[in-house]
Amino acid sequence: MIAYIARRIVTLIPILFLISVVSFVVIELPPGDWVSFQIESLRMSGVELGQDEADRLTRQYGLDKPPHERYLRWMENMILHGNLGWSFQWNRPVNDLLSERVPLTMAISIASLLLSWAIAIPIGIYSATHQYSVWDYIFTFIGFIGLATPGFLVALVLAWVIFTTTGFSPLGLFSSEYLDAPWSIEKFLDMLKHLILPLFIIGLGSTGGTIRVMRANLLDELKKQYVITARAKGLTELKLLLKYPVRMALNPIISTVGWVLPGLVSGEVLVSIVLSIQTTGPLLLRAVLAQDMYLAGSIVMILSTLTVIGTLLSDILLAAMDPRIRYGGVKK
Amino acid sequence: MTSASTNDKLIEVRDLRTYFYLYEGIVRAVDGVSFEIRQGRSLGVIGESGCGKSVTAQSIMRIAPEPPARHVGGEILLHLGPNHNGEVIDMLKLDPRGERIRSLRWKEISMIFQEPMTSFSPLFTIGNQIGEAIQLHLPDLSKKQVRERTIDLLGRVGIPQPKRLIDSYPHQLSGGMRQRAMIAMALSCNPRLLIADEPTTALDVTIEAQILELIANLQQEFNMALMYISHDLAVVSEMSDEIMVMYLGLVMEQAETGEIFDHPLHPYTQALWRSIPRVEGGQDRLVPISGTLPSPYNLPKGCPFYSRCEHRMPGICDAVRPPMIEVSPNHKVSCFLYKSEP
Question: Which of A122, A275, A293, B259 is the most exposed place for a label (fewest CB within 10 A)?
Fold first, then answer.
């Protein structure tokens, strides 16, 4: 088991290197850069910039250097100093910007993932064990609606409904009176109150799918011989259900942990914009639009890294759950 | 084969009817099956695929999937024996999820299944899964005693190094070893009836012989009754004191093994016997049974074998079901060709 984990961690290094190259290239690919974007927006507002000024700006931001040199500098700073670069757009270090938002994004992602599991797995189990019952049809119907409705639309509608019925504005992360207040229990509770709606909406997006996956897997497993064996042994239905088929049916759901994160991040961009929550999604969108390359590159890099780590975690979890995977690569 | 008194009945099945209610229609998987098994004796059940032999076995343990299965008639009487003051329980009257039936499963009746590959969950060691059964029915045993009992059982079914293999996962064992482990699990609570539902179908012929011998020996050793289900006539004749021939959810003929092999009465049994290759049979061609099974959704009104029978009597056989008649003591047949003993 330890050897397995060690092997997996070593293979992460080349993957992370490739990710950094791809992140950089992706950000470099669109024509133009931050300076040309600036000049363009100045021209739009009627200010004409001379070529000298443009060259000076390009030099100042280091954009005159060839791409591979810039990549190497970015990497050098990242690895040696943990410095992800400078955001042109915000005129602040990328580290500052991300340290505000990445933890919040991860907290929302993980919490909404857990929330969606907490809702979807029991419903999936119920639907599979009561196939074609009234509640199975009701859950299936709700699940399909959840799958088909865009999250931002639900966010808009629910935010409006909550505001008109209770007078509480669920937008943003804090109510206005706590915005600049120091941390206190009241501020924390206020934040939780604001987080319920986004969590609910982001989590719900994947809940419908997870219900379907859980239901389908469990239906397959319930027909297996080992379930009948367990029943013949005299186990109670609940105990045999949880010990045998449910654990098998969870495997595919666990293996999706890795790519839940990018899915949630891209899915939550619109929801976050609608509910004006400062996560990385809207930040990435603005950075890409403004060609704020180090910020955008760093976000892509961090999200990809988290995805890779998430995949690793899900593989380790799978190996812990299923002995066939654990012993798969080991010769007797 | 010892003749036993009528008091040591273990299980009595009377007119069992188990139907499957599917979208496509009703499948009468078991449609009026009666038999009994006495203590320590063995009953072989033969029939083609889909004749209801497995469903009969599952009905006895009440593990047929309900729904779609429903037990629409009959009774399954389990005689609990002197330890329980001779109490008799109708398994069909119990709640299939209830506590009573769970306490009877595996303790009184246990079962070996066809597929050793899938009858264990891949996620737990075989020791865990066998120990689970022991702990469930013998809750007074400590964990250590459960483990010792499991190791002892694994040794008795011929698993080498049981102390080591108790902690292996099913996928680490071969098919034959897994079936041995399954037998160990089936015997773990000293059941009085062991149902073996085609336990060797998925195994190699050489392994099959070993497993059959093992089951036969253990039946003696544990003094269990055995219900052996197979489509393999040779195997069934080896394993059973009595044989019951099933066709489309009905019993066609039932007699002691020697008797039914020497004097098969029902045209279906005779046709089956003709389709067995015999060592002394010389160059004779095997005779297959002509025709195909009728649709299970739409069974004929009369004898189910009518369409394939060589001796069919139009107007008689296709009008009503032939009743089960006792032609000679303990030899019953369901066919209009015979008259019951006066």
Answer: A122
Report CB contact under 8 Å: A234, B105.
Answer: yes
Sign (positive/negative) of CA torsion A50, A51, A53, A57? positive
Give me Rg for the CA atoms of chain B: 21
Which residue reads 């029978």 in tokens?
A: B309
Write down the residue that tokens 């639900």 correspond to: A154
Structure token pair of residue A240: 């045999």
Q: How many CB atoms lie within 10 A of CB B252?
A: 28
A232 Cβ under 8 Å from any chain B Cβ = yes
Region of B16 (left: φ > 0; alpha: ψ -120 to 50; beta: rest) is beta
Q: If phi over 0 gives left and psi between -120 and 50 gives alpha, with beta otherwise, what is residue A47?
A: beta
Residue B165's Cβ-side half-sphere holds a number of Cα atoms within 13 Å equal to 21
Residue tagged 């924390």 (tokens): A188
Residue pointed to by tokens 């389990």: B78
Residue type, A41: S
Judge contact between B257 and B331, C-beta under 8 A. Answer: no
Written as one letter, the residue type at B86 is G
* Tokens 């609940």 found at: A238
pLDDT more than 70, % of chain B? 95
Q: What is the pTM of this model?
A: 0.78
* Average confidence score pLDDT of chain B: 83
Quote the Cα angle for A85-A99-A284, to 5°: 65
Share the mean pLDDT of chain A: 81
Distance CA B230, CA B232 (A): 5
Closest Cα in chain A to B102:
A234
Amino acid letter at B274?
A: R
CB contact under 8 Å between B63 and A231, yes or no, is yes
